[in-house]
Amino acid sequence: MITIDLSGKAALVTGGGQGLGLATATRLHQAGASVAINYFRDGEGINQGIADKSVASLGDRALAVEGDVRNRESLAAMFDSVVGEFGSIDIVVNNAAILSDRSFLKMEDSDWAAVIDTNLTGVFNVCKEAASRLSDGGRIVNMASISGFVGFFGQANYSAAKAGVVGLTKVLSKELARRNITVNAVAPGVVLTEMGKTIPDDARTEMLKQIPLNRFGEPGEIADTVLYLSSPLASYVTGQTIHVNGGWFG
C-alpha cells in the first residue's frame, strides 16, 4: 500500500480558515503535517474567529497565524512565527483570494487593484518571503483557476490575476529548482465553497452544461491534488498547472 506521510513536515496555507483553504489544511494535517492557517485581521475579528475555530477542529499540530498577503513586513513576521513554532517550513500553499466581479466597462480602478493586489501580488509576496525560509526540497503550491484560462464574464481582474499566477509559477519553478523546491499550480473549476456560492444560479446552470462529469467539484477533491503536489510522489513534477474541473477545460 502506498500512503502519503508528511510527518515531520510543516505547512502554511494562506486564507486557510474556510473553503478550499480549510479543505487543504485538513488534508495536509491528516497526512501528518503540522499546519499553520493564515488569516487576515479584519476590524471585527471575524477572520481570526474562523481561523481559531478551524485550528480547534484540527487539534494538535495546528496554528492560526495573522498575516496580510499584501504587506511584506506582515508576512515576514508571520513566517518567523511559523518557523518559531514548528521549527521549519516545508510546504506553502497560496490560497488567499478575493472576488470583485464587474463587467470590464463598469469595473472601477479600485476593483482591479484590490483583486490584483491580493490574488497576484499577494502570491508574489508570500513566495518572496517563503523562498529564504523554505527547507531544501520544499513545496510551493499556488491556487490558480479555470477563470485564468477560460476568462469568465465580469472577471477581468480575477482572470488576469490567476493567469499571472500560472506565469509566476513557471518562473519560480526554474529559479528555485537548484534547491530542489518544486513550484506548481492547481486550477480548480467551479467548486461550491462560500466564494463559489456567490455565482448567480443562472450562471451556474450554464456552467454545469459545460462539465462532462455533470457536477461541480468538492473542496476535498481540490485538496487531494494539493496533497499530491506536496508529497514525495510529486518529486519530479514542477512548473505545472494541474486542472481539476471535471473535464471542462484542460
The fraction of residues assigned to DSSP E strands is 15-25%
Specify Rg, calculated over alpha carbons.
Answer: 17 Å
Query: Helix-strand pattern, N to C?
Result: EHEHEHEHEHHEHHE
Output the strand order for the largest sheet.
3-2-1-4-5-6-7
Structural classification: alpha/beta
Structure description:
The protein is α/β, with parallel strands linked by helices. It has one domain (10-244): NAD(P)-binding Rossmann-like Domain (Rossmann fold, 3-Layer(aba) Sandwich), CATH 3.40.50. The protein contains eight helices and seven strands, in the order E-H-E-H-E-H-E-H-E-H-H-E-H-H-E.
Write a concise keyword list for the protein shown above:
single chain; 250 residues; alpha/beta; seven-stranded parallel sheet; 7 strands; 17% strand
Topology:
Elements: E1 10-13, H1 19-30, E2 34-39, H2 46-58, E3 62-66, H3 72-86, E4 89-94, H4 109-131, E5 134-143, H5 147-150, H6 156-175, E6 182-188, H7 201-208, H8 219-230, E7 241-244
Parallel strand pairs: 1-2, 1-4, 2-3, 4-5, 5-6, 6-7
Helix pairs in contact: 1-8, 3-4, 4-6
